[in-house]
Design brief:
The protein is α/β, with parallel strands linked by helices. Among the domains are: 85 residues, no CATH class; 108 residues, no CATH class; 94 residues, no CATH class. It has 21 helices and 7 strands. Strands 4-3-5-7-6 form a 5-stranded mixed sheet. Strands 1-2 form a two-stranded antiparallel ribbon. Strand 1 and strand 2 form a beta hairpin. The longest helix is centred in the first third of the chain and has 28 residues. The protein is globular. The mean pLDDT is 91.
Amino acid sequence: MNKVFSTVLNEKYFFLILSLYLVTGLIIFSDYGISWDEVNERYSGFVSLNEIYKKLNLNILQGYPDLSSYIYREYGVLFNLPLAYIEDLAKINDIKNVFLLRHLINFLIFFLGSAYFYFTLRIYYSQTVSIVGFLFLILSPRIFAEAFYNNKDIIFLSFYTISFYYFLKYFITRKNCFIYLFSLFAAMSINVRILGVLIVLIFIFVLFLDGLNSKKIFKKNFIDILKCFLLVVLFSYLLWPFLWSNPLENLVYTFKSMSSYNWRGLVFFLGEYHQAKNIPWNYTLILFMATTPLVIVIFFFIGAFFSFKDLILNYLYIDNKVYSNLWTNNFQFFNIIALLNIIIILSYVIIFDSTLYGSWRHTYFLYPSIIILSLFGIDILRKYIKFKFIIPFIFFSILSSLYWIFINHPYQYVYYNFLIKNKVKSNFELDYWGVSNKDSLEYLLDNYKKDKFLVYVYSNSPYYYSKKLIDKNKRDKIIFVKKIEDAEFIITNHYYLNQNPIKKDEYLYNNFELINQIIVNNNSINSIFRK
């Protein structure tokens, strides 16, 4: 207890900011709409819950297929399974409360992951620099919003970050307790996304290199590698019902399924539609640069350059060192591991032509590594420029992000930085997940006194999902019709598949009366028209 109290005192400024962030999240978590994936994710949780009930000879829930025949059986359910159990145990009958609970837990997991990120930075940096890194993470507008409803990429980012923290703690202290914690959170990461296996491979790679110069160290490291491997396998098996029936075969099936995932949807990128399976190689890189605060991007490239330089020089002169390795000290190791993390994943995405869609969210888990290199970029600049000249840029970036988040709440998920904000609609997707759909439906209910609303959806977005977040006594007033001539209201989130969004919008503006629109950075992300 005294140790915890001492930590709070020593980190008082951080805990003040962390507390403000927590209170903010608890106040606003109900403001966000529902994304496409959330309904299916909830369903997957109940499929796996039934598998457990069946093993325990309990009454299974009706309306769900057997796990062995379920189309998405290979997906991990670390987030969805416990929430399905809570929903069943508490008998939550109102579907709105179900998804609000999911949004709250989503935020709390990211909140925990972001705190771990701060303490990861504190291993190498002062409290001030670590707070800057923490703010870079939580005040990146897209991350800020998606922390409430993205229960794949944000949850993966969180557990990956926690496992990375314990990886570093083990590397510094060599204590066994950190191997156990690292293995647990690595297994949790793998359960959310199979790419979590990367952190385990990095762990093995680092320990292998570390033991090359000493038989004694190599022997100890080999034992620790074996221990980590066995623990990750054990935890993965325990946390993943899909593996219970046939662990090896189902794990191989999962790897094959994820490596050749064939989503046939289209992605609007740089003014053209592309098959997600054949997306241009620079998709992730361009979306990262377009949707991330510019100061972070600039500092990242500086840090990445100098870290890459250290890596190459260390490799070239490795035989001339007393203790040969790809890093010369713990700080350099920290930055090089972050760099390798990014290089390996981006190389994998490009070489194997991975299926990508929905911005660069599939690689969000790299964002903490990106921020680590951004801070390294700042550290490098301090050697060439007086720090007092760098502070205004950092301060401006944090304040501008905070201001943008505030004035555009709760639509931070369509953030593009100021370099391209006037070119967004003709080049990129906006609310591709339909999170703003709920607010347009609520606008109709709040502003028109009618018993029913005949609504035609003029976009490829499932507005019927969003009815789940509308109050129970109102949601049945919304009736979606299949023909535009049968509708009184036409609604769109401007998300169209394989059709020019500007031309599609022109038809609406020329033929119907615009009665409301949600605008972010002069771009309409959801609009309502009336005949």
